Amino acid sequence: MPKSGFAMVLHGGAGARRSRDxxxxxxxxxxxIEAGRDRLKGGASAVEVVVETIGALEASGLYxxxxxxxxxxxxxxxxxxxxxxxxxxLAGAVAALEGFASPISVxxxxxxxxxxxxxxxxxxxxxxxANGFAPVIDPDLWFTRAGADESNFAPGALAHGxxxxxxxDQEGRLAAGTSxxxxxxxxxxxxxxxxxxxxxxxxxxxxxxxxxxxxxxxIRVAAAAQVAHRIRLAGQSLEQATxxxxxxxxxxxxxxxxxxxxxRGQVTAPFVSEGMKRGVLHPDGRIEAAAF
Length: 292
Fold this sequence. Notes:
By secondary structure, the protein is α+β, with helices and mostly antiparallel strands. The radius of gyration is 17 Å and the shape is globular. The chain has one domain (7-290): (Glycosyl)asparaginase (Glutamine Phosphoribosylpyrophosphate, subunit 1, domain 1, 4-Layer Sandwich), CATH 3.60.20. The protein starts with 6 loop residues before the first strand and ends with a strand. Helix 1 (23-41) packs antiparallel against helix 2 and helix 2 (46-60) packs antiparallel against helix 3 (103-113). It is built from 8 helices and 13 strands.
């Protein structure tokens, strides 16, 4: 793969509603894209920028991931995240992780320090503790419950929020990552697409994809991997592949969106929902940030 320009896309979730003002989130995403651009310009790898960007999204408390998560129906905060390195095929994930500030960092450690792809529940928490990750001391004070004021859904409903990032670096390497607090009022133990490699996150030499929306639907169509496989096996363009996958999700009755980047640095951020918070660094250096 020839070396050429770098590019990146991030999302802050497809749960945006036109009744809310997202000026703060748009400013924040713009700043993260600018920071990612500078890191990539300095030679940072795709994986590094993905983890750093998602870590900042988690820490902000502005999105339904990391500090912005809401509790499940049992009052507990179970968080999910995943990361995939397209250059090596390595991946790491955590599901139903409790008690730690940055699920994406723990997912990266699973990828780098274990022979596994996913750790879940108590095992994920024990691994995070053993590896010295920052704990959440007081959940009631730490978590901001971002977006909870606009959910108003009954238990089991699929009001949602997620953050993610996809990157192509100067060396042409692709990477993708996703992190979430899950759907609002979720049942204990519920896991959506976010920590599932191939459903919520995927990266290979052809594309990197991060999904956001009603995860149950993204799992059913293997959304993230399907985009990459359509490009590799069917010869589809990035736009064709992502549109086909979202059409399947919409046909099933689901909503959401995704961000994707291909081997040439082409980027896209389509959605079949009311809105999707997103920031884009195009290969030509243009930056965009929007919610609708």
